[in-house]
Amino acid sequence: MDLEAAIPTSRHWTEGGRNSNLPARGEGAIPTSRHQWRSMRQEYRKKKAADHTEENLQYMLGARFLTESNVTKQILNYSQGRKAKDRPEKKEVKKERKSVFTESDFRKFEREYFGAS
């Protein structure tokens, strides 16, 4: 039940009579004066949860900007944990194998080993 609908706008609420089941004056009692009702309604409206979904959605749709790739990488690196499962797999860079011998060394070896050709 909506609390605002339950708050009467007239002064017919009195102690006793048809409203005898209402709490007595003091802590938790229902206010009796018009000013108290007004302030109670204002407090309810203040505390009532407002739905800001539409405003937030419009803001998010209106703010279309892209971050720089280096900033994105920095954020991702910072947010990754220390556990092995949280780390991305590092790609192994294959090194190109270089020979210590030159073509002239191979020719020289060929002449010595197989004879003159």
UniProtKB/TrEMBL annotation:
Broad class of where this protein is predominantly found: nucleus
Keyword set, alphabetical order: Nucleus
Species of origin: Chiloscyllium punctatum (Brownbanded bambooshark)
Cross-referenced Pfam families: AROS
InterPro entries found in the cross-reference section: AROS
Compositionally skewed regions (Basic and acidic residues) per UniProt: 86-98
Region of interest: Disordered: 1-37, 79-98
Record's protein name: Active regulator of SIRT1
Similarity field: Belongs to the AROS family.
Compartments, record wording: Nucleus, Nucleolus
Gene Ontology molecular function: any one: enzyme binding
GO CC annotations, alphabetized: nucleolus
